Amino acid sequence: MELQVYTIDGSEAGRTVTLDETIFGVEPNDHVLWLDVRRIQAAGRQGTHKVKERGENAHSTRKLYRQKGTGNARAGSAKSPIRKSGGTTFGPRPRTYGIKLNKKTRQLARRSALSYKAQLGALRVVDAFGFDAPSSSRLTGLLDGLELNGKKVLLLTAGHDTALYRSSRNLRGVSVREARNASSVELLNAATVVVEEGALEVLRETLAGPAAAE
Questions:
Q1: Any idea of the CA torsion for 152, 97, 101, 184, to the nearest 10 degrees?
Q2: Mapping DSSP to helix (H, G, I), strand (E, B) and coil, where does residue 110 land?
Q3: What is the chain's Cα-based Rg?
Q4: CA–CA dist 105, 33 (Å, integer)
Q5: How far out from the chain centre does Cα 12 lie?
Q6: What's the confidence (pLDDT) of residue 30?
């Protein structure tokens, strides 16, 4: 697949770039995508929920009333889970919700997300962002030229780009990630992915799988 390359002002650069079929042309695997999204969302859960169980309740341990002769059911402690303000049975405890997923599966999920974007025409390539200093207006000009203003856009850079990141902070729906760090959730959430031309090689090196090695 070939895509038109754009300049930083949103105009056509007059040339095209060929996308790596092992990254942007695979058959998307929905199940693997689901597994990776579930892994990422589970890792975001804090897992600090906690309630007091019977042994942690502050009530006295003395017997509430004598065993026989009251007409009531026998009761041994105010800490009993069946009594009001007693301890909780099988309550939540602090835990981690992390899910393990092997590297090749995570790579396939990201390749599937990128392939979906390529199939839907939601992928743009820019020769270089090249921001010398933060400039929201300049970034807005790029989005206007690509007809993406007001949409959820993910910008993928070849390396760390502080100026571009600061330029995007005032723009709603625009996020910046290094190509090697972009997750499948971020790729799927974006309406359009704008990739720096140099980031295409980074993606190839990062997401190289069995198909890419052949």
A1: 0
A2: helix
A3: 27
A4: 9
A5: 31
A6: 96
Residue of 9, 205, 26 lying closest to 114 (CA atoms)? 26
pLDDT of amino acid 130: 83
Specify the pLDDT at position 209. Answer: 54
Alpha helices in 44-193 (DSSP H): 103-119, 136-145, 162-168, 184-189
Paired with 124 in beta bridges are 194
List the structure tokens of 20: 């790596």
Q: Cα(103)–Cα(93) distance, rounded to whole angstroms? A: 30
Contact 155/177 with Cβ under 8 angstroms?
yes
* CA dist., res. 189 & res. 95, Å (int): 28
pLDDT along the chain (214 residues), means of 10: 88 90 94 97 94 89 91 91 89 93 95 95 92 90 91 94 92 94 95 94 83 42
Contacts of 46 (CB under 8 A, 6+ apart): none
Looking at residue 104, what is its pLDDT? 94
At what angle are helices 103-119 and 30-43 packed, to 10 degrees? 120
Handedness of CA 175, 181, 182, 186 (dihedral sign): negative
CA distances from 45 to 38, 49, 94, 103 (A): 11, 10, 11, 21
pLDDT at residue number 131: 85
User: pTM to 2 decimals?
Assistant: 0.81
User: Residue 100 and residue 102: Cα distance in Å, rounded?
Assistant: 7
